[in-house]
Amino acid sequence: MNGRNQLLSLALIALTSSLGAWVSPLASQTPTPTLKSQGGIQITLQAKINPKLGINTITPQAMEQAKLVLERRISGLGIAEAVVTIGDHNQLLVKLPRFNAPNLAKRVIATTGQLDFRKQKKGTESELSAKLQVLQEAKLQREALKNSGDQKAIAENETIYKKSLEDLKSIFESTGLTGDMLKDAVASPLDRSSETWQIVLTFDAQGGDLFAKVTGEIAGTGRALGIFLDDQLISFPIVSPEFQGKGITGGRAIITGNFTLDSATELALQIRSGALPFPLEIIDSRSF
To answer: pLDDT per residue over 67-79, tens digit each?
Structure first.
């Protein structure tokens, strides 16, 4: 399990309207991973339609929007003189001079970044842990089979893995609260002495009101608030009974889990930069 797509451990939203009083001053800064200063990389990305998400065509306007999102993400990495251009056949070309961390660039650039908050459905309180266990077992088997060469076992495991993902998503329902309602997302240390990091989210007025409403509905019920990134569950906190009815006010939330400095910074950057209007596939990557 790694990076932003790993399924995180069960976490409790610890949030009050006075959150800003105890969040470390580092929460207002975006740490930049240590990078080598030599060489550079060039990445070619292909825009992809996704009928399931209602993306049936790639328009010139959407390509321009994707270019702006990539430029914001690259700027957040602290890369100077980077160039993003729109090519033929709905492709984007990204040149990153004096940058020598290709895996980091690929993760940050190619992830769509669609964030949304879903609430666990009534009557499924006892199902979450069981479905998480099935998914975890399928993921472990998937990793074990990756280089086995046993195509039949790999295919069978892939079927189980995909079904477990769908089963997990089926116990959550939309709330209408999405990453479009965020004003900011920053990485912050869990506490002054900890090496574990978290992501602090700040909603706009509409998002803050909706977050309070949703958390008020599930507080004290034992049902989780599912935080999904690109349709993958990344965190599933339980809201404590003290927020029942009134919800969590103040317009802020925290995503906690087994984040390192780099993984928290990556996720915060993707959320803060906005979602891409369509999926991107890396079709070529080379050094120069």
So the answer is: 999 998 888 888 8
